Amino acid sequence: MTTLRRRPDTHSDSPGAAAGFLARYARMVSGRRSKWAVLLIWLVLISAGGSLAAKLGDVQDNDPETWLPSSAQSTQAVKLAEKHFADKDSSTAIIIYARGGGLTDADRDKIAADRTALQDDIAVGDVAKPQISDDNKAAFLSYPLRTSPSDNGVLTDAVSDSEDIVKKGAPDGLDIRIAGEAGSVRDFAEVYSGMDGALLGAALGVVALLLLLTYRSPVLWIVPLLTVFLASQVASGVVYLLAKHAGLLVNGLSAYILMILCVGVGTDYALLLIARYREELHRHQDRHEAMQIAVRRSLPALAASAATVGVATLCLVFGSMNSTQGLGPVVAIGIAVVFLAMTSLLPALLVILGRWTFWPFVPRHTPGYDASAEKEHGTWARVAGAVGRRPRVIWAASIGVLAVLALGTTTVETGQTQAEQFTKSVDSVEGQHLLAKHFPAGSSAPADIYVPAAGAGTVLQTVREVPGVESAASERTAGGWTHLTAVFEAAPDTAAAKDTVERMRTALDRTQGESAEAVVGGQTAIVLDTSDAQKDEELLLIPLILAVVFLMLVLVLRAVVAPLVLLASVVVSFASAVGAASLLFHAIDYPRIDRGLLLIGFLFLVALGVDYTIFLMARVREEVKLRGHREGTLTGLTVTGGVITSAGVVLAATFCVLAAIPTVASLQQGLLIAIGILLDTFLVRSLLIPALSLSIGPRIWRPGHPEDEAPLTGERPAQTARVDVGT
User: Fold this and answer.
1) Where do transmembrane segments lie in this chain (predicted)?
2) I need a surface site. Which of 37, 558, 567, 683 has the fewest CB within 10 A?
């Protein structure tokens, strides 16, 4: 047992400009009169944001064509189609008819009638003649449908109307499916449709349960949960306005990440602020004064956390893909709104409601109160004692566990196909299976080739000779350009199909004259160009994110050594999370990932991993001023262990809610981030970082010397704290 006494102040106790701002802000959000003004401002924001949040789904763009950089060949192909062939705002649908015993005369009559009805009522171009398979067991129709970049309902309604036509009066036993690009977009839209409320409800339900277990109060959990919900609505409203009027790209996944992140991060901030408020209620009779000190002492760490995550996510605007560029501002807006809500609206509500919200465990004024002596910190005091006794063994064992998990990265498989994108059966996937069974697998999405008319003959001959091409044909000529199509032997988004596109582009680049200007587009080309763009983004954005996070840590901790150690720890933690997640993906039979998962997972796990480390190290730095490096480190771990662990569990649980969306990408996104957060919470932040801090010693704060700094006057009464920190 070590007795620790506060050092006498040897420096000036002038609060300075930063401390002065903190004090003024704390008084504003929790003052006797100003708290009502804060509440009124948020009520105005909520009344406006709530109505706009409901419209966010109307501005989502889930068409991969719009996500690609303008330099991609597939993007150039889309522009040529729109400019010369009036193929603007259209998407191809494929209707597949199949009967195991062979198509009957009634089936053929139905197909002919459907073609006429689709041409008259639905299609915005010609409905191609029905293609009959050689085994006479299947046929398909292809035709264009109208789309709208600002309204997903235009295409989904057209596909649904098509479905009504083709399934009405269909002969018994005739299997009819809608595939192609339009069918796939419709399936994604249906998967995401109505999920806003369900996801938000599930996330709030999970958080409510965890808050009940954390606070053991039937009342207190309602306040942060209500604040988080209202903040998420305001954030969604802001994103809607930017998507509607400023061209911000929002897709289904980014919208749901915004929602989940608002709930998870907002709850984390609430846990940390309420824990500090509870401490100060023991030290002060006046709840307004207690909240002012709680806000003043919590705000630097919360602001540093929000700034780190926000700035790191804004790095995505330097990505080459439009979808990546759009995700950065979406997340940054959510973080900013949640931070403001949890540091203004939440304090105002808690002060307005008073101490009774903690019932039945109401914190009473306790002279000489020391947070580290609380019974609830007993478990973490024992953890701190173990770390203090054998720090080298602890950090070596922790790194060993992380290294073993990181070996799982060797099992990572990229190249997820359309058939692997859903966790339930959907028409577009089943239709593709039928098509591949009776026709060349690439029939549902031929490659589109655009070439100056003078080079069309050379291009057509060259394409037909490319291995993997089943057939090629010239479609039409307009504006000096010719449109050709090529059907692949492989399914549109498979590795074999992408290899065929690469061989085709290489062969065309080797031709002479105008044929060398040909561009290859279509569904497979989009998948290939997306994968290439994601690789380029990883090379650019991962170092940029690391640099930004490092600089933020230097500013927050006023040190250089500690940020290097912390950054290395979160990188190792990320590798371990990817390895563990990959092993889990194989176990649940979803082994392949979309390549974009690596970048997005890296962003969130590094940013959120640093988040918890900031919460820990900011408190440790504060305790080091009072107790010295060793005791300050272990006391910081003791008093933050419970609340930060609760925050990590809450955030991991909210990301697991993404598994409710029946797409493999959402499931994998949620599991990867949840695994990473739990590893960081229970292993990296609880054991590795404190153990390394003790082994490195006070040098970890260099070039700073927090142990020689004086704490601000009035923030904590002089007292003797007794903490079992080992020897």
Assistant:
1) 36-54, 191-212, 219-243, 255-277, 298-319, 331-354, 393-412, 539-557, 564-585, 597-618, 639-665, 671-692
2) 37
